[in-house]
Amino acid sequence: MAGKPKLHYFNGRGRMESIRWLLASAGVEFEEKFIGTPEDLDKLKNDGSLMFQQVPMVEIDGMKLVQTRAILNYIATKYNLYGKDIKERALIDMYTEGMADLNEMIMVLPLCPPDQKDAKITLIKERTTDRYLPVFEKVLKSHGQDYLVGNKLSRADIHLVELLYYVEELDSSLLANFPLLKALKTRVSNLPTVKKFLQPGSPRKPPLDEKSLEQAKKIFRIN
Ligand SMILES: N[C@@H](CCC(=O)N[C@@H](CS)C(=O)NCC(=O)O)C(=O)O
């Protein structure tokens, strides 16, 4: 039997968190090897483990996978969270890419210069309520089903619920006008695998605090 997937990243959300969410939701246990210093990262770079000298990197099924989207695609395919045919997959891809765009805006917010931060938060809130969430609310309303695609849980639901938690962290009123999204969040959060991941002590990572931000900047040599 293959061992547990091994995740290589720093001990924070960043680009690995969606991978953690997807594996956990699929009921897959994983190990984490945290990169704690720039030297830890250099070691992985120098031993040839990182195709583009970047993490996330996931050891799974005898491979060392890099590139977040490629990793997510592999996991979603392997655990049957990627639709039943190419049309469903196209829908899932479109939804997922939209979610990734908003997720990226939120993820890089801590790196924003202080004098630009308020404007950036205003923009993220606008995009959340005017561009992204209405799309997914409309999808759920249009077919009246429990999940976004094919009346079955897919990666799109998992990525969306992860995103809804971040949106709520930013401003809990942002979901007020999206009753179907709130219901989806509750439904997915109550799935046994997700419920477990949401409990304290799981591999889910908290929002980035000042100390972790400084550590991440040091590891990834961000000025
Ligand atoms: N397109 C890549 C980007 C990966 C990336 O930017 N990784 C950063 C950490 S979040 C990194 O490894 N930086 C170190 C470097 O580029 O030397 C992905 O999605 O995986």
UniProtKB/TrEMBL annotation:
It is an enzyme of class 2 (transferase). Residues 3-83 form the GST N-terminal domain. GO terms for cellular component: cytosol; extracellular exosome. It comes from the Eukaryota. The lineage of its organism: Eukaryota, Metazoa, Chordata, Craniata, Vertebrata. InterPro entries: Glutathione-S-Trfase_C-like, Glutathione-S-Trfase_C_sf, Glutathione_S-Trfase, Glutathione_S-Trfase_N, GST_alpha, GST_C, GST_superfamily, Thioredoxin-like_sf. SUPFAM superfamilies: GST C-terminal domain-like, Thioredoxin-like. This is Glutathione S-transferase. Residues 85-208 form the GST C-terminal domain. The gene is LOC112914067.
